[in-house]
């Protein structure tokens, strides 16, 4: 086989699965069985709020003398801190992507 035939076969072997995957995803999206990007972000923000609230409650319980283990308080605070750092990084990447899209000349 010549290189052009090989290239055509290679492209077809890539395009077909990609086309099928995008068609399946589109059908799932239309039926509502796939989360949208907005829904994913909203759920992530709710999780971040929950972690922050749990951390605050654990700290208040520990300070007030309730029977709370210090390691569980530190763990809750660390989870909240890591989630906050991740959220900040995601926000920064979204802003960076938005700025790049705005700089595209049409």
Concise summary:
This protein is an all-alpha fold and 106 residues long.
Mean pLDDT metric = 82
Strand content: under 5%
The number of E-state strands comes to 0
Report the major sheet: none
- Protein structure class: mainly alpha
**What would you call the shape?**
elongated
Order of helices and strands: HHH
Low-confidence segments, given as residue ranges, are none
Q: Can you give the helix content as a percent range? A: over 70%
Question: How many individual helices?
Answer: 3
Tell me the radius of gyration.
24 Å
End-to-end Cα distance, whole Å, is 41 Å
3D structure, described in words:
The chain has 106 residues and is an all-alpha fold. It has 3 helices and no strands. The chain has helices at 3-31, 37-63, 70-103. The protein is elongated, with a radius of gyration of 24 Å. The model has no long low-confidence stretch (mean pLDDT 82).
For the structure shown, list the relevant keywords.
single chain, 106 residues, mainly alpha, elongated
Question: How is the topology of this model organized?
Answer:
Layout: H1 3-31, H2 37-63, H3 70-103
């Amino acid at each position: 086989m010549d290189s052009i035939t090989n290239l055509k076969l290679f492209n077809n072997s890539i395009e077909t699965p990609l086309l099928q995957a995008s068609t399946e995803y589109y059908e799932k999206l239309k039926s509502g069985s796939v989360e949208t990007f907005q829904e994913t972000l909203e759920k992530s923000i709710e999780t971040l709020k929950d972690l922050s609230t749990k951390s605050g409650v654990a700290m208040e319980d520990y300070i007030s003398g309730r029977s709370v283990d210090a390691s569980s308080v530190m763990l809750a605070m660390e989870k909240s801190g890591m989630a906050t750092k991740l959220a900040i990084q995601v926000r920064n990447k979204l802003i960076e992507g938005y700025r790049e899209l705005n700089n595209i000349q049409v």
